[in-house]
């Protein structure tokens, strides 16, 4: 609290807002949050649980234990009204510039230290990874379509936004595959 008795707005990072957005859709466990985010903004459970504890201390989420037969109890989190308002207030603010961290690209930056055949093999592995990821994305998108296709056209429904973000991620991977094949062709041409 500040001197006037008013609670100051907590400083949150992007992951906090992402978690609030997931929980606003429906209550979830930490593990379920990780699964929900894996194709939008991959996170680790080691990031999610401390963030949930922080959000709970700040009164932005609440949790309850859910009994499960034959398994340990599960802690399920949901967004409070304050959490919802902070998320809504944050949406539309000027975002920080995007950060792209891709270890593969960092390796390619120094690819000249390897033989071209080795770099080609790296790109072939990357293409395999990209195609596997694209297949998972296509399944997720198809699942959304089967839930209720009308929701995908309604910008007031969260399925609409999940669909457009998954579609964006899919198109990024499609471009990655095209670029990777082009680099392989350049490397092979240089070897002739």
Concise structural overview:
This protein is mainly α and about 190 residues long. It has helices at about 15-25, 30-35, 45-55, 80-90, 105-110, 115-145, 160-190; strands at about 60-65, 75-80.
Notable traits:
192 residues; mainly alpha; Arc Repressor Mutant, subunit A; two-stranded antiparallel sheet; 7 helices; 60% helix; 6% strand; disordered N terminus
In words, what does this structure look like?
With 192 residues, the protein is mainly alpha-helical. It has two domains: 14-90, Orthogonal Bundle (Arc Repressor Mutant, subunit A), CATH 1.10.10; 103-191. The protein has helices spanning 14-25, 30-37, 45-57, 81-90, 103-109, 116-147, 158-191; strands at 61-66, 74-79. The longest helix is centred in the C-terminal third of the chain and has 34 residues, at 158-191. It is elongated, with a radius of gyration of 21 Å. The N and C termini lie far apart (70 Å). Mean pLDDT is 90; it is low at 1-7.
Decide which structural class fits the backbone: mainly alpha
Biggest β-sheet strands, sense, barrel: 2 strands, antiparallel
What's the structural domain tally?
Answer: 2
Number of strands: 2
**Helix proportion of residues, in percent?**
55-70%
In which order are the strands of the major sheet placed? 1-2
Unreliable residue runs: 1-7
Taking all Cα atoms into account, the compactness measure Rg is 21 Å
Overall spatial form: elongated
Portion in beta strands: 5-15%
Put simply, the count of helices is 7
Q: What sequence of helices (H) and strands (E) makes up the elements?
A: HHHEEHHHH
Overall average residue pLDDT: 90
What distance lies between the first and last C-alpha atoms, to the nearest angstrom?
A: 70 Å
Say what oligomer this is. single chain
